[in-house]
UniProtKB/TrEMBL annotation:
<dbReference type="GO" id="GO:0005634">
    <property type="term" value="C:nucleus"/>
</dbReference>
<feature type="region of interest" description="Disordered">
    <location>
        <begin position="53"/>
        <end position="80"/>
    </location>
</feature>
<feature type="binding site">
    <location>
        <position position="260"/>
    </location>
    <ligand>
        <name>S-adenosyl-L-methionine</name>
    </ligand>
</feature>
<dbReference type="InterPro" id="IPR023267">
    <property type="entry name" value="RCMT"/>
</dbReference>
<dbReference type="InterPro" id="IPR001678">
    <property type="entry name" value="MeTrfase_RsmB-F_NOP2_dom"/>
</dbReference>
<keyword id="KW-0819">tRNA processing</keyword>
<dbReference type="InterPro" id="IPR023270">
    <property type="entry name" value="RCMT_NCL1"/>
</dbReference>
<keyword id="KW-0949">S-adenosyl-L-methionine</keyword>
<feature type="binding site">
    <location>
        <begin position="228"/>
        <end position="234"/>
    </location>
    <ligand>
        <name>S-adenosyl-L-methionine</name>
    </ligand>
</feature>
<protein>
    <recommendedName>
        <fullName>SAM-dependent MTase RsmB/NOP-type domain-containing protein</fullName>
    </recommendedName>
</protein>
<dbReference type="Pfam" id="PF25376">
    <property type="entry name" value="Pre-PUA_NSUN2"/>
</dbReference>
<dbReference type="InterPro" id="IPR057286">
    <property type="entry name" value="PUA_NSUN2"/>
</dbReference>
<dbReference type="GO" id="GO:0016428">
    <property type="term" value="F:tRNA (cytidine-5-)-methyltransferase activity"/>
</dbReference>
<dbReference type="Pfam" id="PF01189">
    <property type="entry name" value="Methyltr_RsmB-F"/>
</dbReference>
<dbReference type="InterPro" id="IPR049560">
    <property type="entry name" value="MeTrfase_RsmB-F_NOP2_cat"/>
</dbReference>
<keyword id="KW-0808">Transferase</keyword>
<keyword id="KW-0539">Nucleus</keyword>
Amino acid sequence: MQIPRSNKSSVLPLLPPLATHSIAISRSQWMSSPTGCGGRARASAQKLHFRRGVEQAGPPSISISDSSESDADDRDIDGRHNYDPVITSVAFNEYYKEQGIVSPEEWDTFIEVLQTPLPAAFRVSSSSKFCAEILQQLETDFRKSIHPEHTEENNIDAIAPLPWYPDNLAWQFNFSRRQLRKDHSLERFHEFLKIENEIGNITRQEAVSMIPPLLLDVQPEHLVLDMCAAPGSKTYQLLDIIHQLNCEGSLPHGMIVANDLIAQRCDHLIHKMKRMNTANLVVTNHEAQCFPGCLFSKTYSYEMSNELEKHPHQLLFDRVLCDVPCSGDGTLRKAPNIWRRWNSATGNGLHSLQLQIAMRGIALLKIGGRMVYSTCSMNPVENEAVVSEILRRCGGSVELVDISGKLPQLIHRPGLSKWKVHDKNRWFSTFEDVPDYRRGGIVRSMFPYRSTKVALQQVGSHPTVNSDAVNKACELPLECCMRIMPHDQNGGAFFIAVFQKLARIPVINKKSVSQEEDLPSMQELPHLSEDTNLLEVISSEEKDKVGERSPKWKGVDPIVFLEDESIIDNIRSFYGIDDSFPLRGHLVTRNSDSNCGKRIYYTSKSVKDLLELNYQAGQQLKIPYVGLKMFERKKSKQGTLTCPFRISSEGLALILPYMTKQVLCASEADFRLLLQYKSVKFANFVDREFGDGAWELMPGGCVIVLDKGSEALKDWSRAGESTMAIGCWKGKTSLNLMVNPLECQEMLQRLLSGEPVRRG
Ligand SMILES: C[S@@+](CC[C@H](N)C(=O)[O-])C[C@H]1O[C@@H](n2cnc3c(N)ncnc32)[C@H](O)[C@@H]1O
């Protein structure tokens, strides 16, 4: 029996009254199947691989699931779509009762909570310059002013911070999404959520999904790989962490590489990440289990590892987030149609893929680095079994980190040490019980790990299973894993394990994996360099690419460093960009003829290094998105321009403190005039001096900064915290706004209401 662990024993006081009626469920709520996207040959092959993994044990249908947020969430309890009253499953009940997932006394509460809708949660971006104001607004305004029906009756807070999340940055609300949309008393709060979410100041994210990035212990200088990243709520949280401490006009040293197999899901992720305006993100599109190591020196050996620090020969990460595709029954409250599909074969079918992805993650980790393995499934075959097999295969070169005290207010349970495997109406306690014809689908690594020597006893000339050993608790420290159950704090279910890499991982001996012998200890292994090990896990297709100079990824524009110095010098001198802001080597375009590039993107030093490594390694990485859009070429009817590039809104906050030319300060009246009319003749500005100043600017791109009365901004290098600035274009007779309509509307609204505005 597992006992919840927490310094606090009480559950969150937001537990809603349990539903006794059937709840309405939309079929479209479930995450779209990976098999439904994309069309390119390679993507199809990848998807096929994923599907095969899933179908290995023969589930009728499956979708990937994640516990982040989903727009479809809004429909599941809304009742506008198809109703499906199924909120229970005999197979589910039988399976988890047999696994002893919760104590018999807890069972009814567990199921009752699972049958209620999940309270929505959101996170305030700590890197947002309006973080403090937003937190204050939540605490002093909304927390006190909103009282939807049942919270009022039950005398509970309608919204409250999650007690375990640091600095009150995460909040949960105690009413349904339907109420949020329909209840008039929540209108202002709903509007607030929508706007702040669009801007990127807050992110809707399921509470339990916020835990893995917290336990990854990410520092702003870390190189982080998010292996299965879409739709990206954890990626956003990771970016938030690395940007948290940096000041305006500077970039953190770290970087996030966000990867996903499905191109369409990558697009969704990219769309979301754009809200962060970051130069420290790379989005890649690979099978995580074959993620390229960008190894380019065939002569590299372990003895050269000191050199490696200075000139990386392969891609290694300080932190890896391995939030694998899973059966997702931890999200049943959010995605109730999982009840109807629930089948133990789903978890069995995903086990091998999850293991492969996690092993690749460990291989890509620097020694001393950390990897979080997580799922939103309750199934031990997808959780503890994968963790056990990682520990077994790594033979002491990784250890499980005890995270039990890291988030003291979070109620959680230790990992299971015993479980069974279910297959086609049969239960197996050991692999030896599995008939030969099922050993393709049911593999040894699904069972609790125990030494073969312990498990087998000799009876006559035949080894038989020692039943004491079978019932013996697993020998691995699985209690270090973290299980979160829905009724622990009125949330979703989640599983998390944190690994620390202590040494190079042993080369995987095919025999020991397939025949399930105990792995030799590290000392017994030949002294092999880690790159050999990395290549072991790179697929042959990837392997072929090592050393290639210019392979092209179909459908993805090549990334080209902007090397034309005349363009860079032109931009620098036109905008008077201070020399302390590095441009050379940091600018990229997505066009092989960089002179014709319409958009120029800025990359941080870490991203620049990664792109260079990738180039040297033959462009192993397929990168659909990189860099912060900084300059955009604009065609002009004004004839030849001194500089045809304007500064884009996304990059404005970063570069403004370094600009000494083409910047003008406007009164609030003139600033508003520009936002309202988009194009204003010089003579029509309220402040004549400003109109004259605008006329005197060079034709082309310029930036208008809001002058906040007494605090007239004279020194752009101090632009930051409360600076409000917009990109414009100086034409022959007028100033023209270069801000997209939505952003413009937002700014205007905030200006009129006196509320804070977003940077840029
Ligand atoms: C649990 S979701 C990830 C949720 C995400 N970490 C978040 O917080 O928003 C799993 C993701 O894995 C992706 N996926 C499935 N198979 C994959 C593979 N072999 N390699 C990489 N990604 C894969 C799916 O497309 C899906 O987006």
